[in-house]
Amino acid sequence: MMNKKEITKFAKAVIHSQKGLKNKQLMHPKREWLIGVGVALCIFIASISWSAVEYFKYETIEQQATSPSAAADAVYRETLVSEALSTYANKAVHLDALLGENVPVIPTDNTDKEDESEEEMVGTESSEDGVVATTTQATSSRGSNIQPPIENEESAAVATTSESSAAPIEERLVQPATNI
Amino acid sequence: MRPSTIRITVISIILFAAAAGAMTFMLLQSKQQGEQLIEQLVTLDEQRAQEESYYRLRRIADESADNRTQLRSYFFSDESESIDFLNTVEKLAPEAGVILKTDSLNLIEDAKDGTQWVEIGFSFEGSRSRVQNFLTILEELPYVAKIVTVNMIATNKTTWQSQITMRIRVLTYDE
To answer: pTM for the full model?
Structure first.
């Protein structure tokens, strides 16, 4: 039979045992390693994600950078230049034709200049005989073709002025050859 | 805690801080380098475009040299070229059978577009047909020119006199 002291002692022992076992060990290597590996994995995954995002961001950078550049495109209007050149070439041809028509009306005292201009017209490939032949032909053609109309026009001018009592014709009555 | 535990903990914290600092530094560096890469790529792209533009311009310049020279000959490069022009016209006048006199020569600037022109006044006389023909010759001279005014009167029964003012363009551009 237990006496009162023994019962109290047993009860204290039971109560004391209900506090559980106290773990006096501060470090748990397995747990700490798991935590460390988990954190490292999180950092590793975050790094991979961030690196992937940056990689894909800079992978398409060339397409972004190849936008229209600030360098201005050079414009060369070749057709316009060709048109201008052909226009002035036509003018030059027309001028040569006009000068060719003009040669017959040169006064006889300017024969030296006439010869020079005719030599320019004939060109350098002709021989001396050829030059003479050509100029002679040109002179004769000019003399036959151009001179009569000039005479007619002069006579027409005379007629016009005589009708107006030989007074100077007003500017508005004259129609110049230009298209101004 | 035991001293060894405290020591290991401190070392771990220091290593972790160092690793975190290095990681942060690398992140910032890679971000900064990435932005620098973008700028350099843009610059490189512009440089390539300029290079292409330069070669294209050079090719055009080489191919169009003759045409440009020809076109330039239709302009006065400066006012002094008007002397050659006057010599040409004065040489053409007797060939056309007219008596030519140069009245004026001025360098003017267009108020609208700022272009420069050499304005030359001529008066010439001869028969009507010769005067008209010389007018046409002046029009057909291979120059960028325009005849501004024309006055034509008959001074007597056979002689007509014409006074014209023509302008020849002076080529002005930044070389």
So the answer is: 0.51
